[in-house]
Design brief:
single chain; 209 residues; mainly beta; Porin; 8-stranded antiparallel barrel; 3 helices
């Protein structure tokens, strides 16, 4: 009991010395993995996703953000033996975000966030007459962990889940069905893994002096 009481001042001081949350910009390079849609995997190869978000803290780690993300996929030329499929697929999203961030030590913090906003898919199949465009609501949830390399710059890892209120279907390649397959695709769902940075808009301790 006495030992615990003796530790209380040290714990309080450690909490007091933790960095404050400041306005930040976060950027992520993300690898998406499609879930439960074998025809999508057969037709495409992921090129990656970029995500950038401006964040504003509000109260005790809670905050809001605004951002954009862009995803690219390559269409595989010989996905189906009956037709030639070449081109690319792109998804563009601008979103609002709610996040909670918490420092676990002087140079480490984690963040949980939820994003929602309108998304637009563009399938540019060069064997089709025109590009196929889909629009629908996008949402995602993400967990990240960061380590500061300097006062205002941190690098981290993230994992998450994304979903769009649009369905992948044979229409993306201008066909009534996927040649040789009875199924007709399904919703866009992704597991995502990311590497990125978080930079705070504040003078470093060296600059303050």
């Amino acid at each position: 009991m006495l030992f615990a009481l003796a530790l209380l001042p040290l714990i309080a001081r450690a909490q007091k010395d933790l960095p404050e949350h400041k306005p930040t910009f976060q950027g992520m390079l993300i690898l998406p993995v499609e879930l439960g849609n074998p025809r999508f995997d057969q037709l495409t190869a992921p090129l990656g996703e970029l995500d950038g978000c401006l964040q504003l803290p509000l109260f005790k780690g809670l905050g809001l953000g605004l951002g954009v993300k862009m995803m690219w996929w390559e269409l595989l030329q010989h996905a189906y033996s009956q037709i030639t499929t070449t081109g690319e697929a792109r998804r563009f999203v601008y979103y609002g975000q709610v996040q909670y961030a918490h420092y676990t030590g002087p140079i480490t913090f984690y963040e949980l966030n939820a994003k929602v906003g309108p998304g637009k898919w563009t399938w540019d199949c060069r064997s089709c007459n025109t590009a196929y465009v889909q629009q629908g609501l996008h949402w995602s949830i993400t967990a990240s962990y960061f380590v500061h390399a300097s006062d205002n710059l941190a690098f981290g890892l993230s994992i998450g889940y994304e979903r769009d209120a649009s369905d992948f279907s044979p229409a993306v390649i201008g066909e009534p069905s996927f040649p040789g397959y009875p199924d007709r695709g399904g919703p866009y769902r992704f597991f995502v893994f990311g590497l990125g940075f978080s930079t705070r808009f504040e003078k470093s301790r060296e600059e303050k002096w």
